[in-house]
Fold these 2 entries.
Entry 1:
Amino acid sequence: MNRRRRILLGILMFSSLVLIGLKQQGSLAAVSRFGQSLNISSNLTNIQKHKPRVGIQVGHYKAIEHPEELKNIRYSTGAQVGRIKEVDINIAVAKMLRDMLEARGIIVDILPATVPKNYQADVFISIHADASIDKNRRGYKSAYFSPSRNDYDQLLKEKIDESYFYFMGLPDDDENVSGAMLEYYSFNSKRFKHSISAKTAGIIVEMGYISNKLDLQLIKDPVNPAYALKVGIIKFLKAQNLLD
Ligand SMILES: [Zn+2]
């Protein structure tokens, strides 16, 4: 054996010992040695994992931009009492709710009064506030499309209602749920192209009356209603195994 061959053999033996050593040190050594490639594969797993998506519709926002099929409601600009506008409260709550959901790793779309054609998400919530000539009328109400479009709308309503009543303490105004709520245009995929998919769980909420002092006090700070809605949405996503 000449000198070069001996050196080569030495290198081979050393490499084998290193490899054996790695094996014997077990997975920890392997993780630190091949950490980079392991990270890449775990990132791929994260990308493939489904992230929940929530669409938040700001009631009446940019109603004037409704397409031809919804031209009859282009002037449905929302309630107004003095200088208080429903749409401003809807915007503030929607943005706060978006921030809270995004902090939980949820993808959020803020949508105007016109939703994209056949919009799909795990949850769709349309945010509104009501007004009445009866200044004493107050309370919260919600609705999903009737006739029922899927198996999830009802569960979404249950989770959000439960959370909203618990955190906000508003009375139940269910007796004033209107036909316009039960046949809300954004849920009506049979009639309108700009509507949510029948598979997307969706409800419309009326957070309270801006014409009532007590209700207005409770909903004008967006943190309160946004938090109550967030908890309900999270509970729904967990019940559907869409969130850990
Ligand atoms: Zn409204």
Entry 2:
Amino acid sequence: MAEQRKILSGDEAVAEAALACGVKLGTGYPGTPSTEILEHFSAIGGNAEWAPNEKVALEVASGVAFSGAKTIVTMKHVGVNVAADPLFTLAYTGVEGGLILVSADDPGMASSQNEQDNRLYAIAAQIPMLEPSDSQEAYDFTIRAYEISEQFRVPVLLRMTTRVCHSRGVVKCWKQKEAPASKHYRRAVRERVMIPAFARGAHVRLVDGMKALAEWNEKSDLHVVSGPEKAELGIICAGAAYQHAREAFPEARILKLGMTWPLPYEAIRAFVKGNARTVVVEEGEKVMAEKILSAGIQVEPKGDAFLFGELNVTKVKRLVSKDETPEAPPKPGRPPQLCPGCPHRKVFETLRDLGCIVSGDIGCYTLGVLPPFSAIDCCVCMGASIGAGLGLRHGLAEEDARKVVSVIGDSTFVHSGITGIVEMVYNKPATGHLVLILDNSTTAMTGLQENPATGRHLNMTDASQLDLAALCKAAGADHVDVIDPTLRHDEFVALVKERLASNDASVIIARRPCILQMKKLSKLKK
Ligand SMILES: Cc1ncc(C[n+]2csc(CCOP(=O)(O)OP(=O)(O)O)c2C)c(N)n1
Ligand code: SF4
């Protein structure tokens, strides 16, 4: 292929590079700002699928990598919490085909429940991490990450942030496209069966491998120094922080790191010698600054005021000049709302009017917390609504316990709600419990993705459809009802009242499609 120039977001650039590298399967679970990677990968001809959750996605990817083929697995930052169990041991087993785990972090919480810094996962799991700073690097570093993954036989974390994922830029797509390859099976029991006897050796291999990678990184071209030979101010940065630092201090000497774990300490030490002072400019936690300081290299970490939110040019200027005066709070915008005609509306009107204590979950329906509904009492992470609701039932006095309802969407239910039903049946509270599954036939919040309960694959071809009612019955729920909460509203209200009055373990599936999903499907039909 002749080199092509394309205008791409960081997410799209990752997908283009993955396709060029011959990725056999892309898998993941939707989550802003990562979702567009697999959607674009599929749109340009890649083989991509949505998994039920991030853990399953990484497990599928591990099998692809054991087979010797290349794979990419994508998720938002909190998804890595779900996938953490296979991730840590996958670092021990290593991979044969290249495996990239994209973690799309959301500093500033544009669309997330926390702003955890997933660079700490690379350190904790002992896997290499690359951090692109723009779309071109998203393309280039994806290709480099496959080279590193296959050379050192390790999974590689490609850590992106919202700005890099969503900003668009011209990308030179230079790589000749490789066809996805399938190999014959190579048995490697001691490498891949993590019983203690084999895992001990694997841990030693992992530590040695990381030492080799650290040496490799010292000499690699993934870190770049720009600016004068000697300067008053030196800045160490990576990812989106680089763009802000470059603009804020065009005269400064800057060390831009590409591979941020393991760090190239000798290159950093040499860089620091050329500056009167060196500041580490990083978003999120003080991850790089603390590691560099603990290696005995004198750098200045940022102040605590800059632990929160995204950086920008003004903030970087303040960070470097140690100006920690509080920022003016942003002007309040219009709060988000459920769409007019949204099927979730009638459900929250009902829960509000019945005075229920609602254990909520994550999806469009989290907006049930805001007026005019004000009908959600807690919401922690995906799937937590059922467990937390059961805990409230166990802990509260009977009169209040009877009012507790867990509310969860279809995609979230498949992601991590199913085991909650098993818990409800196995450890049924004295007052029973009621779970409402809001089945709007899509994963609406992240942009209308398909899931196992919609009966369609990522590329909209037909799939076997998960029967939510049959699943809840099989788990042993005392009652499972399916009802349209808008068209049969009075019956829905009566049913909720009846179930709350009983001591049974009940599920009501409130089934009515999202109006935007209906529009998408009718457009597709045309
Ligand atoms: C672990 C994790 N993965 C992904 C996300 C992103 N995310 C938030 S809600 C959601 C699913 C929403 O779908 P559904 O439960 O069907 O509700 P809807 O938005 O359709 O009402 C996703 C994927 C997240 N917050 N946490
Ligand atoms: S996108 Fe769909 S589910 Fe979300 S608020 Fe709008 S109608 Fe409701």
